Amino acid sequence: MRVTCIGGGPAGLYLGILIKARFPSWPVRIVERNRPLDTFGWGVVFSDATLENLQAADEATRREITESFVHWDDIEIHFDGHTIRSGGHGFSGISRKRLLSILQARAGELGVELNFQTDVTDIGAERDRCDLMVGADGANSRVRQSFAQEFKPNLERRRCRYVWLGTTLPLDAFTFIVERTEHGWFTVHAYRFDEELSTFIVECREETWLAHGLDTADTQQTIAFCEQLFEPYLHGHRLMTNSAHLRGRDWLNFTRVSNERWSFGNVVLLGDAAHTAHFSVGSGTKLAMEDAIGLADALAFAESDGLEQALEQYEVSRKLEVLKLQNAARNSTEWFENVARYATLPPEQFAYSLLTRSQRIGHENLRLRDTTYVDRIERWFGGRAVPPMFVPFVLRGLELQNRIVVSPMDMYSCLDGTPGDFHLVHLGTRALGGAGLVFTEMTCVTREGRISPGCAGMYLPEHVPAWKRIVDFVHASSRAKICLQLGHSGPKGATKLLWDGMDEPLDEGTWPVVAPSAIPYSPKNQVPAELSRAEMDEIRDAFARAAGMGLEAGFDMLELHCAHGYLLSSFITPLRNHRRDEYGGSLENRLRYPLEVFRAMRAVWPADRPTSVRISATDWVDGGIDGNDAVEIARAFKDEGADLIDVSAGQTTPDAKPVYGRMFQTPYSDRIRNEVGIATMAVGNITDVDQVDAILAGGRADLVALGRPHLADPFWTLHAAAELGYEEAPWPVQYLSGKEQLERLAARAREAAS
Ligand SMILES: Cc1cc2nc3c(=O)[nH]c(=O)nc-3n(C[C@H](O)[C@H](O)[C@H](O)COP(=O)(O)OP(=O)(O)OC[C@H]3O[C@@H](n4cnc5c(N)ncnc54)[C@H](O)[C@@H]3O)c2cc1C
Ligand SMILES: Cc1cc2nc3c(=O)[nH]c(=O)nc-3n(C[C@H](O)[C@H](O)[C@H](O)COP(=O)(O)O)c2cc1C
């Protein structure tokens, strides 16, 4: 098979090596427009794990690379006059030039044909001359552009500008410097990559860059600016550039590249041409070289299965791994783009937030890397070395014994709104299980405001004693507090029990539903009647009455459900609210009624008991609520006296395109907490202790709600305590023998794992 590779960067060269090592008879030609060691940038980093992959693929290359490495373990963060260090991160740096020269030499030794200073312009002609054409031509890939119809690329230009500089400053840690100027924040990402030199990347927001006039600065002016700004850290060392061969300016915008397909016919994309990962996660070269391993492996099947099949196999083998890393890189990119948001955090938490920004490293993972650092952050967070989730939290006069919350979950098991034995056992067990706060499911303020015939209510006199029985049990038998979530189904009402079909309209026993506008939730749902002002008054009063009944029942806290496309959520989202009166139109107008309801509820709720509001922080569709709106919504409720925002997302339209993943809604909580300055609760696919503690210690939320994990394990919190070796979590006295045994087993498991 004749292989032509456009681009002789790490991806193309490494692929050439691997193909030649495995299939020596295949002619492999690499065409590169630059001279052999003509390269932008300075150094690249590899994690220890990446090196293991390289070792398995081609030991000779790995050995050479490893011999040229500078290894370091620490990350050092300079912020606000503080220097914070954390260890155990295990990275190695190498000069990009050195890496390329190793790869070029090895490729030459194995018989790869290397053509330098050849800019390929006619991609189609190159393709016709070979059996397999590889587009390894970097982030601005001409191969990708030439076949854009087939690859369907997505290019996302990010909001920061960066310049990739070098310095003789001898750094002994991966170093972040975060520095404020009169026009905004600058961040440095710096690391040493050989005996003499370190990479020094400077980054700032586009508007900051413009305000400093850096758009008109030439290279020397850029360097002078950066040297002056970072003078206290440079200790007399100079900054340098080697980007003279680059056309245009020194300051670039990072572009996130992804492609719907990576191959078609005999053309395949590799490395940055297929996908990019922001330099702040330092993984672009790793991904490029791992792509080469994946492609070389898949090509072994080209003869038996056909080339196209083999290329598809390569894509399948790599895509998920790449997507995971790109998601982590997106979190990291956004963290640096919004560094001003985090600059309000105390330095300890700022540093922790930076270290865990990609959501890939959790609290226990950090502890494995550096116990002393984690002890220090725990002491800072909780006053002593305690897992953050077990640090009490106070909202008004309510003290929660820990930060774990049983998220509201509809059980569809009430009769005319009355919770019965099932609810006593269900909520009672979860309170016994150790969570600091247990939520009721959405409890509907009128019969017609129920989602289904099985939903809970607070509209009949008998609802008060039925709830009181549960509340009293929780208070008498556990240290958990209990929060009543009040809601009205609006356009999503009169539907079946969950297990008979989610959002499916009732076949019999239905009732008319209402909404801000006559827009059905989906084509199959009922068309709701548009609410008149008089009806809005009635529903508002029903909320206030239900709050009063909740007080009678003894609830510790109240939550207003303004999420998931139910009535109040439908007022807020423009997708469902097309009103022409003062309750429709602008976000301010759309919030008017939900705020009015909140005010009415707050008025009957005692001043020393807290309230929370659950919102959908995004509709996950264009033209709907987005992160910017979510900040405004949270601010509006905060101004009315809400103590906590329970940050959920979506479920407002069947057209939503959610981006699922671990902790996928937490970035919204993070943003609201740190931009609005209100306590938040994160929720959504948070499943383990590592994630929970990282969210809390990093200041991404003040409480963490777990829904499905609590359905699977009512004792999630007590299990977490045992897993962490935290013995102080109070167990029900009746169960103490279980505590001892579980702790013993958990200690053994920890020992075996260490
Ligand atoms: C500021 C910054 C810092 C980074 N830091 C790191 C890091 O620390 N660690 C890390 O792993 N990664 C890092 N990266 C990413 C890394 O540089 C890339 O991910 C990696 O180089 C991708 O390798 P590649 O071979 O796919 O593409 P490239 O290295 O871009 O190579 C593509 C090659 O194709 C050539 N080419 C392009 N078009 C043509 C054409 N038409 N004809 C002939 N030749 C052509 C180019 O000249 C180039 O040599 C960083 C990137 C940036 C921008
Ligand atoms: C069966 C079920 C019922 C739910 N009922 C409610 C509800 O009544 N009120 C509410 O606000 N959210 C409800 N939710 C959403 C959860 O509170 C939570 O936000 C969601 O499950 C995501 O968290 P998780 O990934 O931890 O499960 C429900 C979720 C499930 C799985």
What is the helix tally?
A: 28
Largest beta-sheet characterization: 8 strands, mixed
Q: Using only CA atoms, what is the Rg?
A: 29 Å
Gross geometry: globular
Task: Tell me how many strands there are.
Answer: 30
Beta-strand portion reads 15-25%
Instruction: Give the CA-CA distance, first to last residue.
Output: 48 Å
Description of the molecule:
The structure is a single chain. This protein is of the alpha/beta class and 754 residues long. It has 28 helices and 30 strands. The strands form 6 sheets. Strands 5, 6, 10, 11, 12, 13, 14 and 15 form an 8-stranded mixed beta sheet that branches. An 8-stranded parallel beta barrel has the order 20-21-23-26-27-28-29-30, surrounded by 7 helices. Strands 8-2-1-9-17-16 form a 6-stranded mixed beta sheet. Helix 18 packs parallel to helix 19 and helix 19 (463-477) packs across helix 20 (533-553). The longest helix has 31 residues, at 307-337. The radius of gyration is 29 Å and the shape is globular.
